[in-house]
Amino acid sequence: MDVPGYPARKAALRLLDAVLRRGETLDVAAHGALQGIKGAADKALARALAGEALRWLTDLDALIDSATRQPLPEDAKPRGVLRLMLAGWLRLETPPHAVIATALPLLGGGPRRLAHGVFSTLVKRGARLPAAPTLPGAVAARWGERSAAIARGLAALPPLDLTLRDPAETDSWAERLGGASLLPCHVRLPRGAAVESLEGYGEGAWWVQDLAASLPARLLGKGAGRRVLDLCAAPGGKTLQLAAAGWRVTALDLSARRLERLKENLARTGLNAEVVVADALEWQAPEPFDAVLLDAPCTATGTCRRHPDVIHRIGPRQIAEMADLQGALLARAAGMAKPSGTLVYATCSIEPEEGEEQAARVALAPDPICAEELPTGLAPGPQGWLRTDPGMLAEAGGLDGFFVARFRA
Predict the structure, then answer these.
(1) What would the pLDDT profile of 372-385 be if each residue is shown by its tens digit?
(2) Of 125, 151, 167, which residue is a domain's last?
(3) Number of H helices, E strands in the chain
(4) Which of 45, 63, 185, 390 shows a CA-CA span of 20 to 30 A to 85?
(5) Catalytic residue list
(6) Domain range for residue 59?
(7) Domain count for the chain
(8) At which of 125, 149, 170 does a domain end?
(9) What is the distance between the alpha carbons of residues 298 and 308, in angstroms, rounded to a whole number?
């Protein structure tokens, strides 16, 4: 159909279906859903529509249900189309007439008339979304008293965080890029910048890394030529940090494909690391390391600001599966640090099963994190562990949800 904007809406509907019905991530679903779409703008629009529909799904459904005599089934195509129509109007500020022209062709016959009627009714009412997304009931119950703050952190898309290769150039790069720094080696830019076109990209002066994701490697301090093992290293931001801090890094990961990206970034930044493709549960270290960093595979619910699909895909089964893997990896990692060496454990998950409950089972001595090691506004908990949520540092643009604990062998 030769209607401008229609292919993006059709792709966005496929993305929603892949996430909500098949449990795929947006990134995985995009490979198939965006096939045949020409132009980066339409691909970006499809991702934006699906992302905003997932971010505000509970509230969009409440609006839809308020304008229908009988609730539409969850998987009904008209509901999916209406979610995208409302996301386009209320979040992307697409004029209603353009929403109708580009989205209604996704339906035919009675469903088309139904969607048109519901959308027109909501437009006439002046429908609005709340200040922050409403989390699905099961998610809100799981996150408990933190839910409201996390939801507020989801209301705005995250900024772009850069980690610098040289901490001495923090002020210089903040000025050159027109950004702000929350701690040495960090620059924060407004969302929307084309990464490859930014000054310093080609020369490898920095790499993209969320502020929270940069904290675990920082907690190992300067390497001064000591040896560190970065377990589950891909895509490699922490490996780059450790190498830049003077560590001799062994970066290990099961995925050869993802490690290729790490190799590319090592070449771009001029940093060095030994890259090993292996299963961390089977690999035998030739000798113990001065430090081990385990940023373990997890449900990634802490990345819900940029990956709102996790709000709808992740439940108790996935959390339990990841927790079992993390426990096994932690047991291996603890045995790879030499006596008096350091182990840092981290996950980008909001779930206590993947954070606090894992740390409580580690047999090594605690090495509490200090407030002085963290950005202003963050503080460790009573056990010396760090917990960040997407609602924290909101006035500065927020950060991902992470759990970090440090131990001494």
Answers:
(1) 999 999 999 999 99
(2) 125
(3) 16, 11
(4) 390
(5) 348
(6) 6-125
(7) 2
(8) 125
(9) 15
